[in-house]
Design brief:
alpha+beta; three-stranded antiparallel β-sheet; 3 strands; 25% strand; elongated
C-alpha cells in the first residue's frame, strides 16, 4: 500500500477541520477517497451556517481538483 496522499483539508469552524485523503491500497484494488470529519458534532449559530457550508464545499472542490491532477500525473 502506498502512503496516503492528502488531497485537501481545512477548517470548517474555528474548532473543526475536515481532511480529504487519497488511499491507494494494494495492487489490484482501486484507490479510495477518505473524508475525515470531526469526531464530535459541529455546532454553531445558524447565522454562521452559510460560511460552514461554503467551507465544506470549498474543501471538497479542492480535493476533486487535486484528484484530477493526480490522475493526470501532476500531484
Amino acid at each position: 500500500m502506498n502512503q496516503p496522499i492528502r488531497l485537501s483539508s481545512g477548517n470548517i469552524t474555528d474548532h473543526h477541520e475536515i481532511t480529504v485523503i487519497l488511499v491507494e491500497p494494494a495492487e489490484g484494488t482501486p484507490p479510495l477517497v477518505q473524508v475525515q470529519w470531526p469526531l464530535h458534532p459541529t455546532t454553531g449559530a445558524a447565522t454562521h451556517y452559510p460560511a460552514v457550508a461554503a467551507a465544506i464545499v470549498r474543501i471538497i472542490a479542492e480535493s476533486a481538483t487535486a484528484l484530477a491532477r493526480d490522475k493526470a500525473g501532476g500531484l
